[in-house]
Design a protein that fits this description.
The structure holds 2 protein chains of 2 kinds. Chain A is mostly beta strands. Chain A contains no helices and 12 strands. Helices cover about 0% and strands about 50% of the residues of chain A. In chain A, the strands form 3 sheets. In chain A, strands 2, 5, 6, 10, 11 and 12 form a 6-stranded mixed β-sheet that branches. Chain A is globular, with a radius of gyration of 13 Å. The chains are: A mainly beta, B mainly beta. Chains A and B meet through strand 6 and strand 11 of A and strand 4, strand 5, strand 9 and strand 10 of B.
Chain lengths: ~110, ~110
């Protein structure tokens, strides 16, 4: 079964600085990976997804992620963050059967002035 | 389109009381899900319904029941609420395992 691990529970960063949020997955079969964002007091919304094809995936709000099979990683990056990017970010993947998703424990991104 | 709607937004229950959380989607999605979100634990799947007429247990089903009333609606019932069920509950829907669309959540406190 596939699972995802987010090692960083919190990432503080100054505005306009670059950021990387880490996600590692475990799987021996086809890989589908997702990043979701949750703004305060809201539900989750899709940021980007990797299903196949190019390993560099671009999402909304200037975020991108790179699928790295050799390192079993799908890290999320943004070259210059804004205060409005303050949110919790979740990596997710299907656990190996059906239409379900398994979510990581989340990374709280706090952008400071 | 309203997307995924959930009612109520907030609820306080006493231990032992029962309640039903309602969820509806207007995107004609086949699959619907119920999650709970607790600090430091991410989202955990309670139950899901791959299609109308079917339901399956997720990671944390104990203490909950669900009903897929029709293609649009998927309800979650707590028969006898416990303090351990204090959480934020999210409903979601999707086409297959592709993008899931989430509702705004229900904040439940059990005292």
């Amino acid at each position: 079964a596939q699972s995802v691990t987010q090692l960083d529970s919190q990432v503080p960063v100054f505005e306009e600085a670059p950021v990387e949020l880490r996600c590692n997955y475990s799987s021996s079969v086809s890989v589908y990976l997702f990043w979701y964002v949750q703004y305060p007091n809201q539900g989750l919304q899709l940021l980007l997804k990797y299903l196949s094809g190019s390993t560099l995936v671009k999402g909304i709000n200037g975020f991108e992620a790179e699928f790295n099979k050799s390192q079993t990683s799908f890290h999320l990056r943004k070259p210059s963050v804004h205060i409005s990017d303050t949110a919790e970010y979740f990596c997710a993947a299907p656990p190996g059967g059906g239409n379900k998703l398994t979510f990581g424990t989340g990374t709280q991104l706090k952008v400071e002035l | 389109n309203a997307g995924v709607t959930q009612t109520p937004k907030f609820q306080v229950l006493k231990t032992g009381q029962s309640m039903t959380l309602q969820c509806a989607q207007d995107m004609n999605h086949n699959s619907m899900y119920w999650y709970r979100q607790d600090p430091g634990m991410g989202l955990r799947l309670i139950y899901y319904s791959a299609s109308e007429g079917t339901t399956d247990k997720g990671e944390v089903p104990n203490g909950y029941n669900v009903s897929r009333l029709n293609k649009r609606e998927f309800s979650l019932r707590l028969e006898s609420a416990a303090p351990s069920q204090t959480s934020v509950y999210f409903c979601a829907s999707s086409v297959g395992f592709n993008e899931q669309y989430f509702g705004p959540g229900t904040r439940l406190t059990v005292t």
